[in-house]
Design goal:
This protein is an all-alpha fold. Helices cover about 70% and strands about 0% of the residues.
Length: about 170
């Protein structure tokens, strides 16, 4: 297992996503209502609705789309697109997106590898979680710290403090 574990969506979050996707299919009329429409076409319509929600600024839709691109689930795997959507959600305070974005920076997937950004996003994710999710985020952040100089660590912590000051949590 890697020093840094990217966040998988929780079962409830994934379940909610697929429930919403099915609901979108039904409400939008994209469900297979005619013999000509395939399941793939219905899924494509649901994906288009998810993308529209993400483009309108819905952080959960942005995270889900980023995760799908990161893993290649329902869309072609594309780290650059994954980072794009994860960053948009992370900037809105989505802790799972922050965690995954930290992993992308840590491994240089879709972005140039940057341990300062990796630590900053991982630190923000850890501060916004609780329970087992917080423990995993703290472990990931601490693993990054072992790779950093004291000056790098101080800079990453400063970046996280500045981000938190500019984006207060509810």
């Amino acid at each position: 297992m890697n020093d840094y574990q990217r966040r998988e969506p929780s079962i409830s979050r994934l379940g909610k996503f697929f429930f919403v996707l099915l609901g979108v299919l039904a409400v939008s009329g994209a469900a297979c209502t005619s013999p000509e429409q395939t399941t793939e076409e219905a899924i494509a319509a649901g994906l288009a609705e998810l993308r529209a929600q993400a483009e309108q600024g819905d952080a959960e839709a942005q995270y889900n789309l980023g995760f799908m691109y990161e893993k290649g689930q329902g869309v072609p795997q594309d780290d650059t697109e994954a980072v794009r959507w994860l960053r948009l959600a992370a900037e809105q305070g989505d802790v799972q997106a922050q965690s995954n974005l930290g992993g992308m920076y840590s491994h240089g997937r879709g972005v140039e590898q940057d341990i300062l950004q990796a630590h900053m996003w991982s630190n923000l994710a850890a501060s916004g979680q609780s329970g087992e999710e917080r423990k995993r985020a703290v472990d990931a952040r601490d693993a990054l710290e072992k790779l950093m100089t004291p000056a790098q660590l101080a800079e990453a912590q400063r970046l996280a403090r500045e981000w938190e000051a500019a984006h207060p949590r509810d």
